[in-house]
Amino acid sequence: MNKLRLIIVALVVALAVAAAAVFLRKTPAKRQLRVAISPYQDLAMLTAHEHLGLDSKYGVDIEIVTLAWEDVVPSLASAGQTVDIGFGSLIEFLTKYENINKDSLDPLVYVFPTYVFKGGGFVSFNKVVPNLDAGSKPTHEQIREFLQFKIGAQKNSMFDMMIFSLANEAGVDRSRLSVTDTTMADGLLAAQAGSLDAVAAGLTQRNEALERGGRIVLTMDKLGFADLTGLICKQSTLDKRRSDIERLIRIWFDCVNFVYADMDQNAKIPIAYLTKKSSTQYTVESYKRALEAEYLPRTLSEAQKELVSQTGLFSIEKISQNVNSYLTTLGVTKVSPPIPQPITLEP
User: I need a labelling partner for 24 at 20 to 30 A (CA). Which of 7, 228, 294, 322 fits?
Assistant: First the structure.
């Protein structure tokens, strides 16, 4: 009888071990992936991953690390262990590519575009500065008139690239332009004081200018400009953690779709994060307004159509070519940075 019991117990244990092995094979093991985001209204959507249980669904443990926007690329480029992957600007990536990857055997790579900032532009407090947004497309005469004024834009920024493109289009010699190298915050103060006529402005500066009696005289999308925010990491990280990164990309679009599906209710999750991490405090209404200057695809297939495809509305290849033209023409870089090739995923 004792032998029979031992045999039964052994069979039960063996069956339990076999069942556990089958379960473990079906359930993807979760591995931690440290993701850098900055406390902005768009990137904050990723914080919904925990609420949605997406870590368990996709088998990857997302650890969000909050960094200032200007610290993300340096953190990724360093050999430290701060983060594995992060969100950064395509234009910044291309502009700094030569320096951040100089003599590197393990370069930073731009993995996949996730959304578009298209609402930047120029604001003015000077009533005689022409509004290039007034018509369907500014004429060369209007552009030349606009470029006669004192303009503020940070050197090598996307705003400086806008001025470069305008000058080329209207046949204006860049050496004749009066462009002051200034940050957006300092530029806004200078414009309000009257020392500059039109200055570069992101979403925050645009809103502040309007509240102070200024006006918008040029927006990026009016000229077909845009900046793509996307995922950036070391080549070695992509090679070793590709499956986890692919899961992160899917998690991102699931989070974006969730927030947009019921903005009044679901935006409370990213807003709660921003309340703790951001200097800007949001209500649901101000959060909605902050997103008006952006385009966030809600699905992977939509992103592939509009951001990855050569025929997309915000084609990463076309935007990269425009940026590279600016960089090489002005001698910012000796050679054109390689155009990013986003990884391929099945929708």
Answer: 7
Q: In sequence order, what are the residues at sequence separation of 6 or more whose Cβ sits closer than 8 angstroms to the Cβ of residue 164?
A: 174, 326, 329, 330
Higher per-residue pLDDT: 330 or 251:
251
Contact yes or no for 163/147 (Cβ under 8 A): yes
Tokens of 182: 């200034």
Whether 198 contacts 151, CB under 8 Å: yes
Residue 23: its pLDDT value, please? 46
Residue in 244, 258, 227 with CA at minimum distance from that of residue 35 = 244
DSSP string, 239-263: HHHHHHHHHHHHHHHHHHHHHHHTH
Longest CA pairwise span in the chain (Å): 103
Collapse the DSSP code of 26 into the 3-class scheme (helix H, G, I; strand E, B; otherwise coil) and give the result. Answer: helix
Q: Tell me whether strands 227-234 and 108-117 are parallel, antiparallel or unpaired.
A: antiparallel
pTM over 0.70? The answer is yes
Q: Which of 117, 119, 115, 120 is nearest to 259 (CA)?
A: 115
What b/e readout covers 85-109, taking b as 16+ CB neighbours within 10 angstroms?
A: bbbbbbbbbbbbbeebbeeeeeebb
- Straight-line distance from the first to the last Cα atom of the chain, in angstroms, rounded to the nearest whole number: 59
Q: What angle do CA 182, 188, 194 make, to 5 degrees?
A: 100
CATH topology of domain 121-223: D-Maltodextrin-Binding Protein; domain 2 (3.40.190)
Model confidence pLDDT, tens digit, residues 277-330: 998 899 999 999 889 889 999 999 999 999 999 999 899 998 998 899 889 988
